[in-house]
């Protein structure tokens, strides 16, 4: 059986960059499950699996198709209960929901501002047109105006991660002594920036940066298979 993860790329298929897809790459590796990754550009996503989902990641596991990163993680933990857990029980699911909310509400917009022009430049022309149009609809301004706020975001970025920094004072991972899906959620956001715009603007001795480096080394250095921009 070939397990397939459909993910997102620009013109270079070897540089998948979606934060949500990186969560699932790490989750599959955490479970020790073999898979083939098939990256698609934005405008080709509607053709995947006969239009199964408007977004990636999509996981095909035998006859089963699953969309949405959190739903895929829940599926993996339920379907492969004999393999290392992604949540460690109901409490871990609740922790992961909180981290997902924190990441999307606090971290994703700053990364968007810092990375948006870099992402545009990674795309082929049809996807560049789609990206400009869809981001104008979503953000209410052209991507150049969004990117104009990037320097302010760089200066303020470290402070936004203070709750994570405080947590890492007590434990090496958000999941405790070992990583859980909660770690992969935040990792995905920082890896999104690393692959598109370069490493997150954090000092090397910052505990969050040290945690990120540990995550990059997980699963045989899976996160490092794509070099930083």
TrEMBL record:
Pfam families per the UniProt record, alphabetical: GST_C_7, GST_N_2
InterPro entries in the record: Glutathione-S-Trfase_C_sf, Glutathione_S-Trfase_N, GST_UstS-like_C, Thioredoxin-like_sf
PROSITE patterns membership: GST_NTER
All copies of domain GST N-terminal, residue ranges: 8-84
Record protein name field: Beta-aryl ether-cleaving protein
Organism: Pseudorhizobium endolithicum
